[in-house]
Amino acid sequence: MAGIVGGKLGLSGRAVHRPFLSEPRWVRVLLIAIALGFLGFFLALPIAMVLAQALKKGFVFFLGALTDPMAMSAIRLTLIVAAVSVPLNLLFGLASSWAITKFDFWGKKFLITLIDLPFSVSPVISGLIFVLLFGAQGPLGTWLGDHNIKIIFSVPGIILATLFVTFPFVARELIPLMESQGTEGEYAAVTLGANGWQTFWMVTLPNIKWGLLYGVILCNARAMGEFGAVSVVSGHIRGQTNTIPLHVEILYNEYNFTAAFAVASVLMLLAFVTLLLKQWVEWQAGREAVLAEKEIAGS
Amino acid sequence: MSIEIHQVVKKFGDFKALKGIDLKIETGELLALLGPSGSGKTTLLRVIAGMEEADGGQVFFLGDDVSRRKVRERGVGFVFQHYALFHHMTVFDNIAFGLKVRPSPLKPSKKEIHDKVHELLKLVRLDGLASRLPQQLSGGQRQRVALARALAIEPKVLLLDEPFGSLDSKVRKELRQWLRSLHDRLKMTTIFVTHDQEEALEVADRVVVMNEGRIEQMGTPNEVYHKPANAFVYNFLGNVNLFHCRFENGKAYIANTPVSIKAGVGPGVQKAKIYIRPHLLEISREPRSDSFKGVIQFLNSAGSVAKIEVLSEWGEIVQVEVPQDQFRLLALKKGEPVFVMLKDAQLFHEDYSI
CB neighbours of A286 closer than 8 A, spacing ≥ 6? Predict the structure, then answer.
């Protein structure tokens, strides 16, 4: 795990002060000031603004904005979308990285490129793909219409768009991790008589669990916050197909700033929880990476 | 269990890793597959284990064709070069793994597993370390855990891939003697891969020397060392000097120096390559009829023998090894002229270049 998560973990801990490598004092002060100023302006200030705006009309109004039926429905829909798309992407991510790292097959490189596609395509296009595919004019639209199945402008469409946008996260975390671990552990398990299922649960999964969790957290954060792709397929039906980000936009467009920021603060809270979880996972993974490194160093 | 390998071929893309290997391993034999990297020795071991599928040929275990059988059906114990221990499991769980994954009718009880693991821990001299994690062990201890884990499933054959490759030289010497004595006790058919000729010659009953996907020679350590089949084997089994030699009227010359060669030369041969080990050269201060002249370039007497590099009169570096007592008597110094004689040279006609 060292190569993947460990790199950014600050495994090195505190920077060791080495006089001969150090810059003059004014350079250090300037660099730190620039970094902090940038963070303050682009991160701390907006966060403070969101909270200030959200609480501008008092805590009662804040709660009211959150417990509004439309807001509640948006929060519920966002949770449903995440609850469906994250487990599906977990399975997809596991299966694809397993296939890519443990087997050799024709078109492997192409598959790796394909997994990155949602990262390089604008989310709006991702949404449009599904509108074109499943919409009334699309190739599948007529058949779906005849069978009374609604995908675009309803929940299945939102889930599909979210799935598309978030599927690289787990696989992207796992592929380099599993590649660095190689297949020796699995081979060892197989020579000892384990079947595929036992090998996966007893050998592979324990080795990748932190990377997997890290990917799931990132995937979940994106699934809850996705705006562009979901916006295209949602149809913005209040109380039915609005997720939290879409609901925020509607409130904002209606000049209902305080309510918009109140709902936005829910997303912000989710982001904070995600960051905390991420930090914790990195810390755990870092500890194990240190242990694993000791093992390599000792051999 | 006896193993028979018949015309095994393995390709990786365009690269032919094994070019038709025939080999028979007797029950209870300890066999070394020796060769440089890329010679196909590890590939052959993995084909026997079933981790690589051969593109041609068959593998027989006790006369049964197992070529199409999967790894887990072959019942081989495999020890990996980098141990491949499960580092989230304790030593106990590592060794017990093969017993725990058995399907329920064959799965031993908790007590049986416990007894078996402790018996194996005693065998590999690690009793008391059952609850340690692999990262808390030294390299040599990890290697023994890997061995105990492989032995736990009571395999009919034990396969070891460069078993001591990543250990420091003192530990590997200890471990290989221990492996030899363990084999003498268990009498299990064992094949190990190594690129270290000393290791192969010291441990194995029989050595198979491989190069570029082929077997160059197989035989006892004595046979391959003293009767090398070709220049490759001779060269691979120790340091050698190479001389280009020509023949005139039945006499051998290196450059313009006449030398005496014991090996017979066929009629009509005009040129040959002579290989000679550094300790089969003799060094003296006085010229002899069949000696050549040189200048000492380098001396190193730290070791069991003294190593001397001599720049020959035709401009090539020649390595000579002399016993320490003789080295002291000669009292050689860098830059001094000396005379070198060939004691016992190996002559190979075929074209093989180092």
Answer: A5, A6, A9, A10, A11
Q: Average pLDDT, stretch A171-183?
A: 90
Q: What does residue B71 show for φ and ψ, rounded to 5 degrees?
A: -50, -50
> How many Å apart are CA A72 and CA A69, to the nearest integer?
5
Task: Judge whether A184 is closer than 8 Å to chain B, CB to CB.
Answer: yes
Residue recorded with tokens 């590939």: B43
The reply to whether CATH 2.60.40.10 applies to domain A58-298 is: no
Task: Count Cα atoms within 13 angstroms, Cβ side, for B58.
Answer: 8
CA closest to B93 among chain A residues: A202
Contact: B72, A184; criterion CB under 8 Å: no
Give strand pairing partners of B339: B284, B293
First-to-final CA distance of chain B: 38
Fold of B3-236: Rossmann fold (3.40.50)
Rounded to the nearest integer, the mean pLDDT of chain A is 85
Taking the Cβ of residue A105 and every Cβ of chain B, the question of whether any pair is shorter than 8 Å is answered with no
pLDDT recorded at residue A148: 83
The Cβ of residue A220 has, within 10 Å, a number of other Cβ atoms equal to 22
CATH 2.40.50.140 domain span(s) along chain B: 241-348
Indicate the DSSP class of residue B232: H
Pick the CATH number of B241-348 from 3.30.70.2570, 3.40.190.10, 3.40.640.10, 2.40.50.140: 2.40.50.140
User: Residue A102: pLDDT band by 50, 70, 90 thresholds?
Assistant: confident
